[in-house]
Design brief:
This protein is mainly α. It is built from twelve helices and no strands.
């Protein structure tokens, strides 16, 4: 299994999109740190109250992690959208599949190889954003809240990876990337719409649409639960997200929904293993 993880890393580094992703991530973190520092300096000059300073740091966390999830999602899309059909087209998959290993094991090995590096990237990005706000804007951090938020932040792109890999068995690389990006965008849009309902009130048809979207691709729901945990759960999260327009959080995914996401990923992996085992290479 270690061999496949190392091979996945070599494959990722050969892609230009990997280098572009690293550069853009670095640029984002630098600009974000400069922005947080300037805002913190302005607030210090204005001598705002500790409560207002805390609220501002939590709002920065909401915005920083919102854009961080964009980066993780597109890292998944560009790195994994051709994981099966892309390698099939260039003949690499046939050479790998010729080895004495079950196809379903090969599929899981590919998933695990990408999952490891996606998790590493997500950890670095999450810690960088949160630590920047903590050190420059005074965001209070509790180890338990931070770890729960981090685990869920990692779980979000892994759910997307599972869906992208399943699509790669059936769809060509470009078609799979477009389809996965549209589904991710729909889930993100639904989350933003739900934030607006805090002002307009809920509607039965809209509620059903949001529920269906969350079940179809629960990435945004997992992200919002991650944000909820980082901001201190029921004690503080509602304070920061009560009046942020589309970034508001009128509802928080339950533990039962998180269990659903585990079953969701397991079913998609099972379907992917089955489809890959029957695929004509």
């Amino acid at each position: 299994m270690t061999m496949y993880i190392a091979a996945t890393f070599k494959e990722l580094t050969r892609k230009r999109v990997f280098l572009v992703t690293i550069i853009l991530t670095f640029v984002f973190l630098v600009l974000f740190a400069l922005g947080v520092r300037e805002l913190a300096g302005t607030l210090e000059q204005n001598r705002v109250s500790p409560a207002e300073s805390l609220l501002n740091s939590m709002v920065l966390t909401v915005l920083g992690l919102f854009f961080a999830q964009f980066l993780t999602a597109f890292f998944v899309l560009f790195s994994a959208m051709g994981i099966v059909t892309g390698e099939q087209e260039n003949g690499l998959l046939l050479a790998v599949a010729a080895r004495p290993i079950s196809r379903w094991r090969l599929y899981l090995a590919k998933w695990l190889g990408h999952a490891v590096w996606i998790a590493v990237y997500s950890i670095i990005l999450f810690v960088s954003v949160v630590w920047t706000i903590h050190s420059l804007a005074g965001l209070p951090l509790l180890v338990g809240d931070l770890l729960r938020g981090l685990m869920l932040f990692i779980w979000m792109p892994l759910l997307l990876l599972t869906l992208v890999m399943l699509g790669s068995v059936y769809l060509p690389m470009l078609g799979n990337g477009i389809c996965a990006a549209l589904l991710y965008g729909l889930a993100l849009f639904s989350g933003l719409v739900e934030g607006i309902t805090i002002y307009e009130g809920s509607h039965p048809i809209l509620d059903k649409f949001l529920l269906l979207t969350g079940l179809l691709l629960p990435t945004d729901s997992v992200y919002r639960r991650s944000l909820y945990e980082v901001l201190g759960g029921a004690d503080w999260a509602g304070l920061a997200t009560a009046d942020m327009g589309p970034f508001s959080m009128p509802s928080v995914p339950s533990d039962a929904f998180l269990l659903y996401t585990v079953g969701y990923a397991a079913v998609l992996l099972l379907l992917g293993c089955r489809a890959f085992s029957r695929k004509d290479l």
